[in-house]
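Researcher: Can you fold this with adenosine-5'-[phenylalaninyl-phosphate] in place?
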Amino acid sequence: MTSEVAALAAEAHSLTAEALAAIAAAADVGALTAARPYLLGRGSPLTGLRRRLGALAPEDRPVAGRALSGALATVETRYDARLEELRAAERRRRLEAERLDLTELPEPPPVGRLHVITQTLQRLEDTFCAMGYTVAEGPEIETEWHNFGALNFPPGHPARDMYDTLYVDHGPPASTLLRTHTSPVQVRVMQSRPPPLYVVAPGRCYRQDTADATHMPVFHQIEGLVIDDGITLGDLAGAIETFTTAYFGAGFTSRLRPSYFPFTEPSAEFDVQRPDGTWLELGGCGVVHPSVLEVCGVDSERWSGFAFGFGIDRLAMLRYGIGDLRDLWTNDVRFLEQF
Ligand code: FA5
């Protein structure tokens, strides 16, 4: 081998080593392909050695040419292998980033709940059903006769006043109204079925009351009506006490305070004592007035009964420690989801 060929081979060897080092150092596909013209292109130092073949003796050219081709082939092979390796790594990274983790548990969607008044109403129905009562319903738009007349409210009674009652523009003036209490359901039940009767009737009521902590213009009552043989005020007091402990629990007590309602005689208010010792008026009650029995087609010589009606919203205040009735209507989910 002549010295020119040896020098050329040595240079090819060191340029090949440099090229292989550069290929190994390329960190990603972009860096490697950007280096390709320098490694294998027409202007690359290794390819440039070809131009020197012409200066060699003719018998040396094939040997030197083969050596150069071999060097270029080595670089190209290594380049292709590294390119494939880097592409595979990028595919893996992309797949890893896009992978769906099917083992991950998504956040459960927020679950709604019944409004605290609906919950209270349903618990009340359950409590009274367990005490042997059935549930009745009546319309929220009532006749003045069912709401007042049949219940002994004389025409001049203050409850009938426009300031208390919301009248509906239907029929003769002041003949149709939004019921002010659930007591008209008593009338409808007595008219529709014979005694004995053990009935509760929950529902919405309407009064022109200004909203405050314990009053709303729309509120809820539950009416109770019992008609049977020889029912007395003692049965009423017993039923109220049984209900109070069944519904509120042992820490609560009830009391009856003498009162007046046109459709019961005697009449009482029913208060419940909170664990902090304060009393809250929950509703009214009394022995059903004989003239109410008669007007509803029940023989007052043969049957007697008691009735009660109390505020469901006030009851929810007591049971859940709610300070202001208006919070039940503003629909702030942070407030409502506590119950
Ligand atoms: C009545 O409505 C009678 N019908 C109750 C009754 C039934 C007596 C059967 C005798 C026999 P009163 O007007 O007191 O009574 O209302 C009863 C209860 O409804 C009140 O104690 C209170 O708890 C609730 N209530 C009345 N007005 C409102 C209001 N604006 N907002 C919230 N609750 C009310």
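Model: Folded with adenosine-5'-[phenylalaninyl-phosphate] in place. The chain has a mean pLDDT of 92.
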